[in-house]
Amino acid sequence: MSATTLIVGAGYAGSVTARALADAGRRVHVIDKRPHIAGNAYDEPDAHGVLVHRYGPHIFHTNGERIFQWLSRFTQWRPYEHRVRGVVGGVRYPFPINRDTLNMLYGLDLDEAGAAAFFERVREPREPVLTSEDVVLNSVGRDLYEKFFLNYTRKQWGLEPSQLKAGVAARIPVRTNTDDRYFTDAHQAMPLHGYTRMFENMLDHPDIRVQTGVDFSDVDNRASYDHIVYTGPIDAYFDHRFGALPYRSLRFEHEHLPQVERFQETGTVNYPNDHDYTRITEFKHLTGQKHSGTSIVREYPQAEGDPYYPVPREENERLFKRYEELAKGERNVTFVGRLAQYRYYNMDQVVGAALAAAKRLSESAASTPT
Ligand code: FAD
Ligand code: UDP
After folding, report:
1. Distance (Å, whole) CA 150 – CA 142
2. What residues does each domain of the chain span?
3. What's the CATH fold of domain 4-37+203-246+311-367?
4. What is the three-class DSSP state of 170?
């Protein structure tokens, strides 16, 4: 019997690696401590039959042609372009900030060149741009920073924008046109029958065995596997030897509204300055589902709880590097994914990282003398 690879975690990192290894001829055993597959992308019908994302809204978008084609083996797609509004002073503005946002907010009638000139006038040039505060002030200046970014970031991370690396706020573009899509990637789509179904198809292979409800700490025959792919938090793998690596958590408050066809005009509405939650998402926008009622989720950021976000700041990355050094010494373990690599990855980036990890593993196995 050929040796088996153990994969810890059945989210994108684990499931993509599992399938790619199985396709390359390996036998794979996937475990997840949760009672389901798909990791944070898990979706399910709620008690009222509306398809919801248990761990918050997931919108697939990528410029990676290869990544999109690879996933397309396991799902058909529903084209979907996500739109978001940001509420300031009780008014819903297009977000990311674009020309319409400026015109609505300041009672202007700017054209594209006028919007560019506006940003040029109000921006506070920063050099170098190191933090998320730098990014926003450098592009849109203080008023827009305070209205749309400052309090949202405080709420989401429990930190000042000046304490977060530039990459966090740099996820959000600033536009002089009137494009109000949240993403501009070449591919923007939702799996037609949901993420969980896509993962079921991905893991449906004669050489993949899946066990949910199993924690890595309960696996006492680790030595019997030829290799381990670990996709959980890297600090937990090493028993927090150097101290806990901070991960930001969320509490999700799901609600079903009977006899409400449509709750809000866009998939997501952000509340930078009001409430303890950051945003409300209405799932029917994302999925296109028809239902007499609707289901929404509010996201409440918190320090404790399941790890959802690495916290991108210098000191955390220094601590991560220490764990990464330990990881390099674990010859038979590959660390991949948002928690294991401590990177603020989107779904498509995790697919890319997992495919690369599987390729490396297959190649190293092929070159190992027997
Ligand atoms: P995870 O999905 O976290 O999977 C890791 C798995 O490992 C988990 O299922 C966990 O239970 C399991 N595990 C951990 N430790 C153990 C252990 N000891 N034993 C057994 N199992 C273990 N990305 C986008 O591209 N678009 C979006 O719109 C988007 N929205 C998001 C919204 C929210 C609220 C969040 C939190 C993330 C969002 N993301 C989005 C990011 C996306 O969720 C991640 O990139 C992706 O799911 C990460 O996959 P992963 O496999 O690395 O981690
Ligand atoms: N952000 C903000 N105001 C908003 C939306 C986002 O200040 O209305 C900032 C905030 O710091 C957030 C980051 O931009 O954490 C990235 O936002 P994104 O929507 O990409 O976050 P995610 O969907 O990953 O939670």
Report:
1. 10
2. 4-37+203-246+311-367, 44-63+72-83+181-191+248-309, 93-170
3. Rossmann fold (3.40.50)
4. coil
Rounded-to-integer distance, Cα 271 and Cα 279, Å: 6
Instruction: Tell me the CA–centroid distance for residue 41 and ligand 1, in Å.
Output: 7
Name the one residue in this structure whose structure tokens are 């373990």.
Answer: 333
19, 40, 287, 345: residue to mutate for ligand 1 pocket, most atoms within 8 A of CB: 40
| Per-residue pLDDT at 370 | 46
Q: Ligand 2: residues whose CB is within 6 Å?
A: 86, 95, 148-149, 152-153, 156, 168-169, 171-172, 270, 272
Asked if the model's pLDDT at residue 369 lies above 70, the reply is no
Q: Write out pLDDT tens, residues 231-246.
A: 999 999 999 999 999 9
Say what the pTM is: 0.98
- Pairing state of beta strands 51-53 and 60-62? unpaired
Q: What angle do CA 339, 10, 268 make, to 5 degrees?
A: 70
% of the chain at pLDDT higher than 90: 97
pLDDT at 365: 78
Element (H, E) at 300: strand 294-302
Helix 195-203 and helix 12-23, axial crossing angle in degrees, nearest 10: 30
Q: DSSP for 10-69?
A: -SHHHHHHHHHHHHTT-EEEEEESSSSSSGGG-EEE-TTS-EEETTS---EEES-HHHHH
Q: What is the pLDDT of residues 145-166, one digit of tens each?
A: 999 999 999 999 999 999 999 9
Angle (CA) 164-354-68 rounded to 5° is 95
Q: How far is the CA of 167 from the centre of ligand 2 (A)?
A: 11
